[in-house]
Design a protein that fits this description.
By secondary structure, the protein is an alpha/beta fold. Helices cover 35% and strands 22% of the residues. The protein has a single domain, classed as Aldolase class I (TIM Barrel). The strands form two sheets. Strands 1-2-3-4-5-6-7-8 form an eight-stranded parallel barrel, surrounded by five helices. Strands 9-10 form a two-stranded antiparallel sheet. It is globular, with a radius of gyration of 16 Å.
Amino acid sequence: MQVKICGLTRPADAERAVELGATHLGCVLVEGTPRAVTPEVAREVLRGRGARAVLVLRDPTIEECLTKVDATRIPCVQLHDYREEVAAALESAGVRVHRVLDAGAREAPRCAAMLATASGPVHLDVGGGGSGRPFDWSALAGLDLRDVFVAGGITPDNVSGLLAYSPWGIDVSSGVESSPGIKDHRRLAALFTAVTEGEDVS
């Protein structure tokens, strides 16, 4: 199971997440959002932790992405509300791209079609992502979830229900926080315990 802890703002939280088993760590580089950090902070939080580092961006230009990749030395981005031509250009430039797809009820058919053709990891979330709300996980039944992270409203209390659908990974932020950007280490530990127990059952 791949586990991404996102919305990190403090090195200590990133370190603890990796100790517990996180495979991916994310920082949000979207100005004006509750967990936004500068490229300098993202580099300090993410680099050298022993997990894949991911920069989270919303509707960026190619130039904006490459500038932030260069500033952080992190060649991996997660794109919300993105344009496919931007994602493709970044991949051509050697940047690993995680695409965020809307898994809400109205977008489910389009989402399933895009899953079949997407290159690289995909994150399923509600709307453009970042809402902290889960979608109807029963929509996952029958989908090919290789390279798919499920995001949105995942907590230590509900993750076992999600694991029944055998996603490749989960992407968690607000569900392990005491306040936006501040991870609660007890909730982090509870999440990884629940994941381990859920995998044993499934």
